[in-house]
Amino acid sequence: MQGKYKIYISYIMVMLIGVVLFILFILFIEKRNKINLEEIVTTAPIQTSPSLNKDLEEPIKMIDNIEALNTKEEDIKNIYRVVTNILNIREKPNTESKIIRQYINGNNIEIININGQWGELKNGGFAYMGLLEKNDDKNAEIASNDGVTPYIIKVKNLNIREKPNTESKIIRQMHINQKIFIENIEGKWGKVAGGGFVYMELLSKK
Questions:
Q1: 103 φ, ψ to 5°?
Q2: pLDDT tens across 34-68, in order?
């Protein structure tokens, strides 16, 4: 009887040991799978479709091209320098057309289109291209949109001042009956083409 009891006990012990080993084996497998999964998630490179990459790159290239085009258009200025005493700007591209304003020697103007011997100004009107030369200085000061207006000096000596007031430094003088060109008028002072200011009451219209 005791012998059978011992056999049963031994059998149960073997079964328990087998169950414990099986459980330990299952836990080991799960832990190993978890480690492998973490390695895959953290180390595997992200794969993207070549077509998707191309689709993403195309809009970026288009934006870059547009920005480059805008920059190019802003940088390009067709600046021309007046090389005659008086340049007449006409309403239409012919010598019979009405003169709408004038520029003088050394003034810079912007030409947006050239058709034959005539150039169209950015601020309107047409100029004869034979009286202009290309100015490659993109920072050149562009003359007033209104051009210049000729006046005759009424006084013996006309002071041209650095600023529009009587206390400002005299930078040069002109004399009676000489012609002077005014770019624009601010109050009682006129800005002289070529620099400086004059008191307008000392001038008369041509």
A1: -130, 165
A2: 655 555 444 445 555 566 556 556 665 665 665 55
Which phi-psi region, left, alpha or beta, contains residue 144 (left: φ > 0; alpha: ψ -120 to 50)? beta
- Which residue range forms the structural domain that includes residue 185? 149-205
- Last residue of one domain, picked from the residues 93, 111, 134: 134
Is 164 within the bounds of a domain?
yes
Residue pair 163/104 in contact (Cβ under 8 Å)? The answer is no
Angle at 114 between CA 113 and CA 120, to 5 degrees: 55
Closest CA to 181 of 143, 146, 152: 152
Q: Are residues 158 and 201 in the same domain?
A: yes
Rounded CA-CA distance 63/66 in Å is 5
pLDDT at 20 over 60: yes
